[in-house]
Amino acid sequence: MGGKTFPVANIFGYQLNASVAIFVLPLIFTINDVVTEVYGRERTRSIIRSGLVVIFLILLFSLLTTSLPPSTRFTQSEQAYDTIFGLSARIAAASLTAFTVAEFLDVIIFVRLRKRLGKKALWLRNNASNIISQFVDTTLFMTLAFYSLERGIGNNILFLSSLIVPYWTLKSLMSVIETPLVYFGVNWLKKEQ
């Protein structure tokens, strides 16, 4: 999903593009904060672990199926199938690693802020935990996926920064925009209890 990009804005001649995953990831972090607020840290961690197992199995299955030889009936469609389901092992590993670290970090930050602030300032706890964990997610993913041993450190820093800053900014903006969903989600889940 994250391989497709779309134009977001042209800022002073710089075309800002973003992955379509930019819409999903902040929402997942927001849902985690809602679940943590209502059901607690352990329930959220359990959900994260379950989700990671599913994501890992999907990635593994995608890598496996694209490596199998096609039957004679399927040879004409093989390239399209591989294009749709094929993933770079490096991109898949970077994605899963960054997502795992950031998901658990989001819960840790949210819980610590809740201990410090109590039940007040849900908007602040949600956005602070999301913005920090999204920075870690973006930085870790971009570094693991795109760091080049052939470029010098300076060139890598410039290149990675050109990816990290706009993506993280967009994710942070999405988190702020989704703040009303946090209040809606918490109220809805509390009514269900």
TrEMBL record:
Subcellular location: Cell membrane
TM stretches of this protein: 12-35, 47-64, 84-111, 131-149, 169-189
Chain coiled-coil ranges: none
Source organism, top-level taxon: Bacteria
Membrane topology category: Multi-pass membrane protein
GO terms for MF: transmembrane transporter activity
CC terms in the record's Gene Ontology section: plasma membrane
Pfam family, one: Vut_1
InterPro entries per UniProt: YhhQ
Keyword entries, A-Z: Cell membrane, Membrane, Transmembrane, Transmembrane helix, Transport
HAMAP family to which the protein is assigned, alphabetical: Q_prec_transport (MF_02088)
Function summary: Involved in the import of queuosine (Q) precursors, required for Q precursor salvage.
Protein name (record): Probable queuosine precursor transporter
Species of origin: Candidatus Roizmanbacteria bacterium GW2011_GWA1_41_13
Higher taxonomy: Bacteria, Candidatus Roizmaniibacteriota
